[in-house]
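Here is a tokenized protein:
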Amino acid sequence: MSRPDLSRLMAGAASALVLMAASSTVWATQVRAPGEQPAANTAEAGLWGMSEETETYARRRGDRNNDPALNAYVSDLTCRVAGEHCKDIRVYVMDRPVFNAMAMPNGYVEVWSGLMLRASTEDELAFVLGHEVGHFLEEHSFERLRTLKNTSTALLVFSLGAATAGVYYQVDVSALIDAVYLSSMAGYMGYNQSHESQSDQMGLDMVHRLGLDASAGASIWGNVKAETAASSFRRVRNSEASGSAFRTHPLTVERIAALSTQAKALGFSGTDADDRKRYRAIIRPHLAGWIEDEHRHRDFGRLLHLLDRLGADGEDLGLVNYHKGEVYRRRREEGDDLLAVTAYRAAVAHADVPVAAYRELGALEARTGNTGAAREALTQYIRLAPQADDLWIVEEQLSRLEGDKA
């Protein structure tokens, strides 16, 4: 991002915060009407302008997913959920391995890959989108400003200080803007329990109106809670909101129970295998990259739980089992070599197996003394990846194994 871009983002933040601090601030209380924008010279207008700057930055980010088909699908689903407010909303899919989505005050919505990877059906994705659209329609971010008025000066100083640091101390400006970008979202999107409950109800109502399964709300949050409980890190297991980037969506038992009760009142029939297959087909082109991104957390327990769910319907088993093998190979606990070999063997039995599985399987088979299977796996890797950058390394491995054979 250029310094002019930085200045505009900071200026937008400063404008919003100055307006927040003004004693004559006017606060919105009514539900948003289609096409409605805040009146000029109000705190809402300042926050709207700040959101526009944030949207401009999000549009240019390198982690924005630009696949036309995927974005068209998510935008269409969001439009169906939003109904008459469809034209007020713009959607960006972001390749970020965190379960999260957010609707900003000006109507731009981010949907993160960590959410799409964990949704099992369109119903579940639609519920989360409906929840975020609910925040937008009820103008919860404007209500949130009331609780931030007393901290506006401190945040303004931080924003201006960040800009100064970028100019005079030559810090990493892109990393700095990332901090401001994420902090600004976190700051005015820390919704309270009332906001969350209201948006949950709206999300369920929107899903039900579309003829989708209202049990999707309890289902997706229940899965995320179970994944959290499987974490390798105690701090994550003890956190009720580890599935959310900004800890605004507590994964309490009470909340999930409330969603189940509301779904029963609306009536639901549950999803079937065809629903899951249709949704998987939509995200399949991105599945490999999204799962690979999840490895960056090095939370092996959570990732194994996620992979088990992804493979539960018997689809994409080459890819899923390959990544299970990768978890065991990278974790390196006692017994993980044999677990990895088992996973890689399961992976190569399927047509969708990544070719790298043969290389890793060959190396581990050799390490565990199964030289015949090692030669077979490495030979297959060379056959399937004749242009691989590491081909010479694999050929040397295979040559040593052939020498041992002789």
The mean pLDDT is 79.
